[in-house]
Write a structure and sequence with these properties.
Blueprint: E1 3-9, E2 12-19, E3 24-28, H1 41-47, E4 51-55, H2 74-87, E5 93-98, H3 101-111, E6 116-122, H4 134-140, H5 147-150, H6 156-162, H7 165-174, H8 207-220, H9 223-229, H10 232-238, E7 251-256, H11 267-270, E8 281-287, H12 294-297, H13 299-311
Helix pairs in contact: 2-3, 7-8
Amino acid sequence: MLSTRTISANGIDLFVREQGDGPLVLLCHGWPELSYSWRHQIPALAEAGFHVVAPDMRGYGQSSAPDDVGAYTIFDTVGDMVALLAALGEKQAVIVGHDWGAPVAWHAAMFRPDIFTKVAGLSVPPPFRGRTRPLDALREGGVTNFYWQYFQAPGIAEAEFERDIAETTRRVLGRGVSDPSNMFVDEGKGFLGKLRSDLPLPNWITEADIAKFAEGYQKSGFRGGLNWYRNIDRNWELLAPFAGACVTVPALYIAGDRDLVVAFRGMDQLIPNLSQFVPHLQRALMLPGCGHWTQQERSEEVNTAMIDFLRSI
C-alpha cells in the first residue's frame, strides 16, 4: 500500500511516496511536477516486485526549498539521491527521471555507477556537454526569449505563476506545452501567455490531479523549481571534469515524438546516436503521438517498458 513520509538526507528534508518491497527504484520528477507525477508507476512497479520511492525533489512540494539559488546545482540534486538511498538503508538502486529529473538520473549513474546500477531517462536524453554555456549559446544564436532565459531573473516567473496557482498548473500540465513555439516568451505576455485557458483537459489528467499539483505548489511556491533553471550555466561549468564521459550502466530512454524536448536544437543528431554516450543502452522507445508528460500521458506503455527493463539482466 502507498505510504508517505519525510526523510532527512543531504542536509534537507525530502517528502517521499513509497510502496512495495524488493530492489529499490528511485523516481525523480521534473518541472513543474511533484512525486505525484509517478502516481501510475508507483503501484505498478511495486506490484512487479520493487521497492519504489518517489520524492518531491529539492525545492518542490513538501520537500525543503533552500533560499540560495546556488543550492540547486546538479551536484546538490544528485547528492540528494545518493543520500536518500543511504537513508533508506540501501546500497544500490535503479534511478529513473523525467524532464529535469532525467539529468539527475543520468548524472547519478555517471557519477556513481557503483550504487546506481541501471538508469532510465524519460523525455530528456543522456547528458551531452556542449562547447559553450547553454545560455551563452542561445544568445550567440540570436535567441533572447526562450523560456530558460525568461526564468533567470528571480521573482518574475514566480510572480506570474503564483498569481493563480491552480490556473498555472492547469495550463502548463494540461495544455499546449508540447508545442515548441510555446516555449518562446513574447514580451509582456509571460510564459503562460500562449497557453490557452479555454481547452478541455486531455484524457490523461483530471481536475482532481490538477488540484493535487496545485496543492503542492501552494505549499512550496515556484521559486525552488525555477532555481534549477538558474543553474543551467553553473552546471555546465561544474561538469567540465566530466566532458566526454559516458553513462556506463544499462540504460533505457523513453520519449514522445510530440515532446517539445525532442524538437530542441541538436536533438535530431543526439537521439539517433545515444549509444555513443550510453554504450549499454538497452532500448530507445519513441512513443507516437505522446507529448512531454511521458509517464502520465502513456502510463501503461511506460510501465511495461520500465518493468521489462528492471527485470532484464
